[in-house]
Amino acid sequence: MREDLNQGLIEFLKASPTPFHATASLAQRLEAAGFQHLDERASWHTEAGGRYYVTRNDSSIIAFKLGKRAPLEGGIRLVGAHTDSPCLRVKPQPELQKQGFFQLGVEVYGGALLAPWFDRDLSLAGRVTYRRDGKVESQLIDFQCPIAVIPNLAIHLNREANQGWAINPQSELPPILAQLSGDEPADFRALITDQLAREHDFSADAVLDYELSFYDTQSAAVIGLNGDFIAGARLDNLLSCYAGLQALLAAPDEESCVLVCTDHEEVGSCSACGADGPMLEQVLRRVLPDGDAFVRTIQRSLLVSADNAHGVHPNYADKHDANHGPKLNAGPVIKINSNQRYATNSETAGFFRHLCLENEVPVQSFVTRSDMGCGSTIGPITASQLGVRTVDIGLPTFAMHSIRELAGSHDLAHLVKVLTAFYASAELP
């Protein structure tokens, strides 16, 4: 099971270089499992025992199974994650021609570790909006092969490189795509038009706009002397999306279960399709009882917000509280913050710990050092939007927000097991 899950995750990561592709990958897997797509612009007819999913902006997805037991009686079980990861986004008018090279201007999306982006084989993917036959349409594209690189400056020309230096995103991050001859003009939109033709077999009249991101072409892999680790891009937080999907597909039919994977977490979640927007509540109000019964249902429910946790790094152990250093391959981590950067409380933490113990899943705890700031997740945002009790958890990870992150190869199976048990829980706190 562990090997199959890890290989499934590797394939999912490869198919999901952007939030748009991640959402499409999740939708494809849900369709194969019998889930029915619901259009937000149409009327819905849902029934007990039904399986459904909804997408918004092509980058967020909510999937749910309506249980045999009425939600008003048993509540709903929600698992939350996010589809986006820090990356480099192409600017609207990106063409740069310097010293005979064709480069693209980029904007940093989210809190990315910038240094690891140098000297990587990069490709480009995302959503393109274009005009064809007088209509405005959109399609996803993925160049797949390495088409760009951001070369480092040789140490001979930067003797202070190993002392650390501030990377200027404006001047030092534009990737190189080609070497041009003479006065040959660079036309990025023509490049996109050609890619649309290759992938989708049509000619666009004009590329109107795009949301395109560079990504590392190196595949995720199980690594280490004993295969102890998974290395790959976008583990934060496609790892949790994949775990939630596997748990939802394995969940029994008795209880109502929801998987919500939203975009824009890395930039604050404030959007129409982010956790700080109305999407989840709007979907739930369309499938749950109205008025008084809606609030009663939510108050009988629980959200497990799944996002990666900081594992204790052997070279930087002093960055952790000495009593709270989560270890890779030692199970999911309950994340706690007194200032509500995480939404966990004693009741929800106790329930999750109970689930782990009942299912023989190891469990850990994390709080940040008292003299350091704390990141946040969709947990507090969703809890404040919906009023649902929440526990923030995640799998321990190294190099979070790097172009290549590291997690334990045993932990995915642990997380899937406890989330499946959560979806099957007859009683919530």
TrEMBL record:
Keyword Lipid biosynthesis attached: no
Enzyme class, spelled out: hydrolase
Biological-process GO terms, alphabetical: proteolysis
EC number(s) recorded for this UniProt protein: 3.4.11.-
Cofactor annotation: Zn(2+)
Source species, domain of life: Bacteria
Binding site for Zn(2+): 82, 156, 401
GO CC entries: cytoplasm
GO molecular function: aminopeptidase activity; metallopeptidase activity; zinc ion binding
Keywords: Aminopeptidase, Hydrolase, Metal-binding, Metalloprotease, Protease, Zinc
Alphabetized Pfam families for the sequence: Peptidase_M18
UniProt key word Transmembrane helix: no
Family, similarity comment: Belongs to the peptidase M18 family.
HAMAP family, per the entry: Aminopeptidase_M18_2
Protein name in the entry: Probable M18 family aminopeptidase 2
